[in-house]
Specification:
The chain has 257 residues and is an alpha/beta fold. The protein has eleven helices and eight strands. The longest helix has 26 residues. The chain binds phosphoenolpyruvate (PEP).
C-alpha cells in the first residue's frame, strides 16, 4: 500500500523560541490535512518544545553523531535526540557534506546509529552543477546512495518504514532554481531501481523518495505530479506556516486527483 506523501521542513539554523508559534500554526493546519505526513526538523534547541506541544506533526533532527556517547564536545547522539522527542533524523545533507566534510562512510555510520536509537532516517543525496553538466549526475547519485544507505538486514528491519531518500540537487538548494519535472522523474526512477536492488521488490518500491531544492508554493503542484515523487524536503519555504502548508496542501490535492 502506498505511503502518505511526506512533507518535511528543514529549518536549518533558523529559529529561536519565537518560532514556536509558527510550529503551532503548522501543527494546527496539519490536523486538517491528514492525507499528508507533515514533519519539521528544527534546530536541536526546539526539538523538545515542539514535540511537547505537537498533536499532529512529527519532529526530527538535522544531524546526529555516529557514536552512542563519548568525548565529542558539541556533538549530539541519536539517543539524545530520541529522548528529546525526535522521531527521525536528516543525514547527509549537502550542507553538512560540504561544510563539515562528511563522507559517505560516516553518513552510513550515522544512519546505523540513528536506526539503533529507534529513529527513522531521511538520507540526502544530490549532485553539483558541474557533475550534472558533464552528464554524470545519475552515476554520482547512485554511487553516493550505495555507499551511504544502511545495509538491508535484521537491524534495519522494514526499510520502507525506516528509510526515506531525499534527492536534492545541490545547485537547486536555496537558489530559487528547481530541477525540471523531467530531470526529477528521471533521477527518481533511477533511485527507485537502486532501492529495489538494495532492499527487494516490496520494501524498495515503498520507500518514499522526496524531492528537495527550492520547492515553494508556486512549483509544489508540478513537483508532486511528477512520477516517483513521494513528498518534499523543504528549506526556506518551511519557515512560515503559510508557505509550508500551501506546499502540504498541494501534496494532499495530488493524492485526491
Ligand atoms: C534543503 O536545504 O533541504 C532545501 C531543500 O532548501 P530550499 O528548499 O531552501 O532549497
Amino acid at each position: 500500500m502506498a505511503q502518505r506523501p511526506y512533507i518535511v521542513g528543514n529549518w536549518k539554523m533558523h529559529g529561536t523560541r519565537a518560532m514556536l508559534s509558527e510550529a503551532r500554526a503548522i501543527d494546527r493546519a496539519a490536523q486538517r490535512h491528514m492525507k499528508v505526513e507533515v514533519a519539521i526538523a528544527p534546530p536541536y534547541t526546539l526539538i523538545h518544545p515542539i514535540h511537547r506541544e505537537a498533536e499532529q506533526i512529527v519532529v526530527g533532527a538535522q544531524d546526529c553523531h555516529h557514536e552512542a556517547e563519548g568525548a565529542h564536545t558539541g556533538d549530539i547522539s541519536a539517543a539524545m535526540l530520541a529522548d528529546a522527542g525526535a522521531k527521525f533524523v536528516i543525514l547527509g545533507h549537502s550542507e553538512r557534506r560540504q561544510a563539515h566534510g562528511e563522507k559517505d562512510a560516516l553518513i552510513r555510520a550515522k544512519a546505523d546509529a540513528a536506526l539503533a536509537a529507534g529513529l527513522r532516517v531521511i538520507l540526502c543525496c544530490g549532485e553539483s552543477e558541474e557533475t550534472r553538466e558533464v552528464g554524470k549526475a545519475v552515476a554520482f547519485v547512485k554511487r553516493q546512495l550505495k555507499a551511504s544507505l544502511p545495509e538491508a538486514g535484521e537491524e534495519l528491519g522494514d526499510a520502507s518504514e525506516r528509510l526515506t531518500v531525499a534527492y536534492e540537487p545541490i545547485w537547486a538548494i536555496g537558489t530559487g532554481k528547481s530541477a525540471t519535472a523531467a530531470d526529477i522523474a528521471a533521477m527518481h526512477g533511477e533511485i527507485r531501481a537502486l532501492l529495489v536492488e538494495l532492499y527487494g521488490d516490496v520494501q524498495g518500491n515503498e520507500i518514499r523518495i522526496l524531492y528537495g531544492g527550492s520547492v515553494k508554493p508556486e512549483n509544489a503542484a508540478e513537483v508532486f505530479a511528477t512520477p516517483e515523487v513521494g513528498g518534499a524536503l523543504v528549506g526556506g519555504a518551511s519557515l512560515t506556516a503559510d508557505s509550508f502548508m500551501v506546499i502540504a496542501l498541494a501534496a494532499a490535492e495530488t493524492e485526491d486527483s
